[in-house]
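agent: user wants the structure for F-box domain-containing protein from Rehmannia glutinosa. delegating to structure tool.
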Amino acid sequence: MSRRVRRRFVKKGKEKVDCPEIDENLSLDDKGVLDWTRLPDDTVIQLFSCLNYRDRASLSSTCRTWRALGKSPCLWQVLDLRPHKCDATAAASLASRCENLQKLRFRGPESADAIINLQAKNLREIIGDGCRKMTDATLSVLAARHEALECLVIGPDFCEKITSEAIKAIAICCPKLQKLRLSGVHEVDAGAINALTKNCRDLTDIGFIDCRKLDETALGNVASVRFLSVAGTTFINWNLVLQQWSNLPNLIALDVSRTDITPSTVSRFFSSSVSLKVLCALNCPSLEEDASFVTNKNLKGKVLLAVFTDILKGIATLLVDTPKTNENCFQDWRNSKVEDRKTDEILNWLEWIISSSLLRVSESNPPGLDNFWLNQGTSLLLGFMQSPQEEVQERAATALATFVVIDDENASIDTGRAEAVMRDGGIRHLLNLARSWREGLQSEAAKAIANLSVNANVAKAVAEEGGITILVNLARSVNRLVAEEAAGGLWNLSVGEDHKGAIAEAGGVKALVDLIFKWSRSSGGEGVLERAAGALAGLAADDKCSTEVASDGGVHALVKLARSCKIEGVQEQAARALANLAAHGDSNNNNAAVGQEVGAVEALLQLTRSSHDGVRQEAAGALWNLSFDDRNREAIATSGGVEALVALAHSCTNAAHSLQERAAGALWGLSVSEANSIAIGREGGVAPLIALARSDAEDVHETAAGALWNLAFNPGNALRIVEEGGVPALVHLCSSSVSKMARFMAALALAYMFDGSGAEIGRFVTMLRNPSPTLKGCAAFALLQFTIPGGRHAVLHVRLLQNAGATRVLRAAAAAAGAPIEAKIFARVVLRNLEQHPAESSV
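agent: tool returned. relaying tokens verbatim.
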């Protein structure tokens, strides 16, 4: 076959870009499209290599030729099962391809049980995470079925159910083992370590990380060990360590990060160990608190890596024959053409160890490390994102996503740390990582981008670097973790007004709506749904974007979530999105569309009964917005909205102000209708509204006053307000609220409910004499409502005012030099009303 696709390189700035060059002999169809079925085998295999195992298997089913190519041994030497659930059936279907499998990554004990069905007897490397529930039985069988195993790494999650018995089984079943790293084992006893010493003669790399206890003496007998990590392990007897580990003949690198090692132990270890070259001691409080040790430069020719040392400078001393061209010694090492196996082993180990410790430190976020993160930690993590080790890249991205977070609950991040990432070119590195075809890297990079984008400056940099398009593309991923983190990034970018339009232009609205339809049918997609609904809620706050959300099926998708999903976080964001969609009643048809969607009103009313305040708040807010539409208002009432919202108002008197505001606001919206107003009074809605009117929060008592104003139009409700003690509360609002709206609405409520006794009119006349401009304006406005010609009891009110001598006070208020202009105008109108009423009564 003469047709082929070869590669060529073109220069783009200083970088070489790998581009496909189509041989001119390769035929194209009439539309200039390449006939993929005629591609040469090596090109198809190269394309297959860029796919995850599920997509690879799917593409193999298109034709017999590709089916055969899809089984090529070179495609199945490495297998990553983490992105998708892998059970026994899925593993068995892959078994025919895994005869030559060398490296395997999995997540969770369920996948570990399924791995046995792969029948990959020649497996050399197994890396598992999310194995907190993994048992001795599972790990033992895993070892027994893979006798050729050379590397076993389980972590960073704590393996709480793994005991020394499983380690013994590993030692017996895997004699070729060279690397063993386990996290969170409760105790590693002498029997387990001695079994490793006896059976695994080539074991050079041991990591018992975050273990509760281990046998120091037995570990000192593993003469083959060259790299040892006990980071985070507790109850270590450092005297035994000095006696036993100092004599390990091949130990060149030791990691004691996050332990209670003392300065004297470090100094004595450096003096006594002949072979040791590097000691990693990150976040060791005893070392960091000893000022004399921190400034001690006599390290006996060893390299100490700690938060108070120059880590990169220390590592650079290990690269004797490597040219120094970059500030980052790891980059120099990667670019070096000098082949040095021992140096490569040390640097690979250091990348793994330091990235793991930085991730753990970022998760615990101990105080006092700000300078370290700003001066060293950020640069280290950004450098590790360029590591050839995928695990290191992922952990670096995860650590970047974690170390900037101050309060996860309130989504607040450290501005200095976030901008340090941006300043050191981190956004570009993260976006490059997000473009990777490896889904593990995609998800961790997207998580970091999402968290960093809480900062407005970082969000701007992400948008300018093309990050929005990247996140939208990742949101279309079939991988749940990738889609979830990408949706989270779009959610954070949708906050504020700067990036909503760009997200919509990049196809983000459709991608987010599709996520809801897809993952609402699957189990385990709650995180995707919450983030997608949150992003749509942010976009729906914009008038133009809200129209696109509705046209792309967003109303139906969000109502479906509100109706069927039982996860409170998802319910809250779905209700918030519907509230924002319904907030544009004056500019588009979304308010009506939400109300007319089948089951929307019923779902929102049901959510007001939730035990979660956030869900109730957003549902009440959505109902408040919907009540501005006449048809929706009646639909809410017909569906039991009066009862539900009165119950909500009763239950939230001690809740957050935002919930109180929306509960009162929803009742205010419903009470515009006279029938609803009467129903609210009969249902017992007056008492909770009076309680909310007493709130110190301006937004709360303003909406409560508005609802009471509407209720006061009805004589029965007016009587209820008096009986429930509402008059003093409303008078208090008139005289003390900082909200002009609240003062006026309280005055209106008093005007419409006035019973003719004259007591309240006397109060307002007295308020006119008050030197406060605010009180003068409020009193004049209230008296205006009492005296409107044709109003209920207006004649009686005029007589009471005349008897109280109000005319003289009103004239003084109208002429007062220091009175506000509105008080003067209202006082003059009241005077005019007083003059008109005698003429009306004599007709």
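agent: one observation worth passing along. The chain has 47 helices and 16 strands.
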